[in-house]
């Protein structure tokens, strides 16, 4: 449902644009992941053996590299991620950072263990637009304890300029079942 203020000349808005989002049953992937180490689980997603999480399709994220304690995601934002001032919404960049921070930690966890973000602190250093090109986010583990993990993330644009950084604290727990 689109709401237009009375008297707004909607034809001046131009042609509407759209994008289709496709995903697979997330619980099938989650159940498969519960039987694997975090590193094996993420590698299976990177290799296309398991489908990515639904958020990856929505935000156009791709898991491109996985190592113990380090992951790389890419994202090519389009206008559908723009905020009202004509730039990519910071929430997309924060989601990208939260994803690499969490998955970096997940890559160190044994089978039966999971994580959730406790907090994330993001520093936005440069605006992102379609012209910024492919964003690359690298997440690394600073310290993985038995109950809490600490990670870092950095996002660069296609020119290599840093657009945002983050530090994250994550809770580590036993998965149910």
Automatic annotation (TrEMBL):
Residues 86-163 form the Thioesterase domain. InterPro entries: ACOT13 (IPR039298), HotDog_dom_sf (IPR029069), PAAI_dom (IPR003736), Thioestr_dom (IPR006683). Keywords: Hydrolase. GO terms for molecular function: fatty acyl-CoA hydrolase activity. Pfam families: 4HBT. The keyword Hydrolase applies. PANTHER family: ACYL-COENZYME A THIOESTERASE 13, THIOESTERASE SUPERFAMILY MEMBER-RELATED. NCBIfam families: unchar_dom_1. Belongs to the thioesterase PaaI family. This is Unannotated protein. The lineage of its organism: unclassified sequences, metagenomes, ecological metagenomes.
């Amino acid at each position: 449902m689109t709401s237009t203020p009375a008297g707004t000349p909607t034809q001046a808005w131009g042609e509407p644009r759209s994008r289709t989002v496709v995903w697979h049953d997330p619980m099938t992937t989650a159940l498969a992941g519960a039987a694997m180490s975090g590193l094996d689980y993420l590698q299976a997603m990177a290799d296309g053996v398991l489908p990515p999480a639904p958020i990856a399709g929505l935000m156009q994220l791709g898991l491109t590299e996985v190592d113990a304690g380090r992951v790389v995601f890419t994202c090519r934002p389009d206008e559908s991620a723009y905020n009202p001032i004509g730039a990519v919404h910071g929430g997309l960049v924060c989601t990208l950072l939260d994803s690499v921070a969490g998955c970096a930690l997940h890559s160190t966890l044994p089978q039966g263990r999971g994580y959730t973000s406790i907090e994330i602190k993001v520093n936005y250093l440069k605006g992102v637009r379609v012209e910024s090109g492919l964003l690359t986010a690298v997440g690394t583990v600073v310290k993985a304890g038995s109950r809490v993990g600490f990670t870092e993330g950095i996002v660069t644009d296609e020119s290599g300029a840093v657009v945002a950084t983050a530090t994250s604290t994550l809770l580590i727990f036993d998965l149910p079942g």
